[in-house]
Specification:
This is Protein T04A11.11 putative. InterPro entries: RNaseH_sf. The chain contains five helices and four strands; from the N terminus they run H-H-E-E-E-H-E-H-H. With about 140 residues, the chain is α+β, with helices and mostly antiparallel strands. The longest helix is centred in the C-terminal third of the chain and has 20 residues. The protein starts with 8 loop residues before the first helix and ends with a helix. The relative contact order is 0.15. It is about 35% helix and about 20% strand.
């Protein structure tokens, strides 16, 4: 398996600055943070991996995949200091417009019910989160 790139000195400095800033963020602010994430599972075996670790005394296993694939399932969820948003099962490949629908149907109602409009939404740097249409959505909401 490929290793992740090593952190540079500059990466370490930036991470330390962020950590110091977050220590002073305060528990009242942390209670307002909603963290979300999605995950896609391939239903036809390992997710693109060709190698696996196995005990040397055991026989190697053979993995196969169907010519047209076995499909996948995408899930999305969110959580915060005092609650969770149940897992949502999403259809198909997710693009920016699909992500906006997911946020509108699942995240915003839960956020408004629990926090009104006083919350901080945290997500990773996935391409659909950085899409122009998604950024426009956040500017409006």
């Amino acid at each position: 398996m490929n290793k992740a790139p090593n952190m540079t000195i500059e990466h370490e400095k930036k991470r330390l600055v962020w950590i110091e800033k977050m220590v002073d963020f305060g528990s009242d602010n942390w209670r307002k943070v909603i963290i979300s994430d999605g995950k896609k599972w391939i239903l036809d075996g390992p997710d693109g991996l060709r190698y696996y670790w196995h005990a040397l005394r055991n026989e190697k296993k053979t993995f196969f995949s169907r010519q047209n694939g076995g499909g996948s399932v995408m899930v999305w969820a969110g959580f915060w200091a005092e609650g969770t948003k149940e897992i949502s099962f999403l259809d198909g490949i997710q693009k920016g417009e699909d992500y906006i629908w997911t946020l509108s149907e699942y995240m915003l109602p839960a956020a408004h019910r629990c926090f009104g409009t006083d919350y901080i939404f945290q997500q990773d740097n996935a391409s659909i989160h950085r899409a122009d249409v998604t950024r426009d959505f956040f500017d409006e909401h």
